[in-house]
Amino acid sequence: MSFKPGILAIGAIIAVFIVSHIVFAPEDHDMRTTITTMLGGIAFLLMTSSVVLSTRLSVLEDMFGGLDRMYQVHRVAGVSTAVFALGHFFGVPKDLPTGVDPSLHPLVPSAPLGMFALIVLVLGLFIALNRKIRYSLWRPTHRSMVLVYLLVVGHFMTAPTIFFQKFSASGTVLMIAGAMGVISAFYSVFGMNRRTAQNFTIESVNALERATEVVLKPVDKVFDFKPGQFAFVEIEGKDWNEPHPFTISSSPGEDRLRFTMKVLGDWTRKVREKLKPGGKVQVRGPYGRFDYTKAGDKQIWLAGGIGITPFLSKLRAMKEDDQRHIHLVYAVREENEALFLGELIRICAKLQGVTIHPLYSDRGEFARVKIMKEKLPDALGTYDYFMCGPKPMIDALRRDLKKEGVALNRIHTEAFEFR
Ligand SMILES: Cc1cc2nc3c(=O)[nH]c(=O)nc-3n(C[C@H](O)[C@H](O)[C@H](O)COP(=O)(O)OP(=O)(O)OC[C@H]3O[C@@H](n4cnc5c(N)ncnc54)[C@H](O)[C@@H]3O)c2cc1C
Q1: What is the pLDDT of residue 128?
Q2: Which of 287, 302, 317 is at the close of a domain?
Q3: 189 touches 127 (CB < 8 A)
Q4: Within this chain, do residues 189 and 202 fall inside the same structural domain, yes or no?
Q5: Nearest-atom index, ligand 1, CA of 246
Q6: Looking at the structure, do residues 255 and 387 belong to the same domain, yes or no?
Q7: Is residue 224, in this structure, part of any structural domain at all?
Q8: What pLDDT score was predicted for residue 175?
Q9: Which residue's C-alpha comes closest to atom 21 of ligand 1?
Q10: What residue's CA is closest to ligand 1, atom 37?
Q11: 225, part of any domain
Q12: Which residues line the pocket of ligand 1, CB cutoff 6 A?
């Protein structure tokens, strides 16, 4: 994960909190209280970051480099929250110091609220990280984390002043963060989905090799998006459960929205077998910052299987006089899995600067850095790389490109998973 401004901002807020907590520690705090309440504060700031990130705001996408990156940070922040919260729980004194009047410093309701929040947090995290749990079950459980957040706010706002002083320097940082977190939590639950939802009807459902192309006609007009962006697709009807993210494979100029969905699990299989034209669909987006227009003129695009969808949109949108030099490597298992290959070859033939290189693993052809080194006219470090495909393929390529000295800010990837 590269250090985008958003990650630096989280680090800076935590640093301000730690410094103010230690430098301006109340005189009646012993060392143990200072350290363990600091751990609790760090846990809360990390949890607040997770909650703020779940608003999916566009400004945050800019700061973190896209929604998929935001979800990665969200996950790391979530796990770290639990680690710091456990440190806080096991370390913090369970009783008031001798001589302190319990009626002036009541431990209830703060202590039970904190305890309950921690138990639900750890359970929720176990579910969140368990990939065996189906997404349709995972999502509502994960959303209940908003309640945990509110419990944690209750925990420290009712904490006895011997442990937490609201208007101390570090207490103020936590209260500002808490206000932002609570607003974000309510926005995520009640406001976000309404803000971005757009209505479409299904115009056609086209069966492809182990995939389906769904063509949507807008009720109003297709929203603005950039090639390579994605959206959440929610089909109306009791059989269809939750929204699913898909890259928009049409170009922004079209009056229809097209998605290409690989059959992977229950939902995508149902799309292929049961979805019929005429149904209603809500699309929320666009999201993502997989934008080739902000990189240099020499680019390598690497698509693994269904990872072709962002490049489909980019190529469908590209003007014939585009000055960029692009090599599109399209790696699939076998030739009939190379979706839209004919169309891609036709488009690339018209575009002067774009060449396509299909690779078939059943013929022993793999997307490897060694081949690129042999075939590319210039040194690897002079290109920008855009990669989308299975995680092992992307991870291996990124690692090998790094070894070859390619700068990390030249490697752009799109992750097809959020969990
Ligand atoms: C940014 C992004 C862009 C994507 N673009 C495409 C695309 O253009 N074409 C394509 O075929 N696939 C794309 N995917 C993947 C696609 O979302 C999943 O394959 C699909 O949701 C699987 O659903 P399922 O129930 O059939 O499979 P399952 O077997 O239930 O899920 C397979 C994987 O998809 C994840 N997933 C399942 N449901 C959801 C959901 N509602 N929200 C988020 N993740 C979920 C699961 O965690 C699991 O990792 C994209 C994913 C992301 C995150």
Answers
A1: 83
A2: 287
A3: no
A4: no
A5: 5
A6: no
A7: yes
A8: 97
A9: 244
A10: 135
A11: yes
A12: 68, 135, 230, 242-247, 260-262, 264-268, 306, 309, 416-419
Contact 316, 340 (CB under 8 A): no
In a domain, 419, yes or no: no
Taking 70 as the pLDDT cut, the residues of the chain under it are: 1-3, 193, 419
Q: In what order do the strands lie in the sheet with 280-287?
A: 244-247, 230-235, 280-287, 197-208, 211-218, 257-262
Same domain, 188 and 39: yes
CATH of residue 63's domain is: 1.20.120
Same domain, 188 and 203: no
Output the residue whose Cα is nearest ligand 1's atom 49: 417
| pTM of this structure | 0.91
pLDDT digits over 89-106, tens only?
999 988 888 888 888 888
- Together in a domain, 380 and 275: no
Which residue's CA is the closest to the ligand 1 atom numbered 34? 417
Q: What CATH number corresponds to the domain at position 207?
A: 2.40.30.10
Question: In terms of domains, do 152 and 20 share one?
Answer: yes
By most ligand atoms within 8 Å of CB, the mutation choice from 242, 250, 261 for ligand 1 is 261
Q: What is the DSSP letter of 15?
A: H
pLDDT tens-place string over residues 244-288: 999 999 999 899 999 999 999 999 999 999 999 999 999 999 999
Domain holding 161, by residue range, is 5-194
Give the number of the atom of ligand 1 that is nearest the alpha carbon of residue 271.
Answer: 26
Which ligand 1 atom is nearest residue 241's CA? 41
Using the mean position of ligand 1's atoms as its centre, give its distance from the Cα of residue 131 in Å. 13
Give the position, in ligand 1's atom list, of the atom nearest the Cα of 71: 53
What DSSP designation does 188 have? Answer: I
Asked whether the beta carbons of 71 and 418 are under 8 A apart, the reply is: yes
CA of 224 relative to ligand 1 center, distance in Å: 23
- At 280 the pLDDT is 97
Confidence (pLDDT) at 338: 97
Beta bridge partners of 218: 200
Calpha distance 153→174 (Å, rounded): 9
pLDDT at 3: 66
Of 261, 287, 313, which residue sits at a domain end? 287
| Block residue for tokens 């693994």 | 304
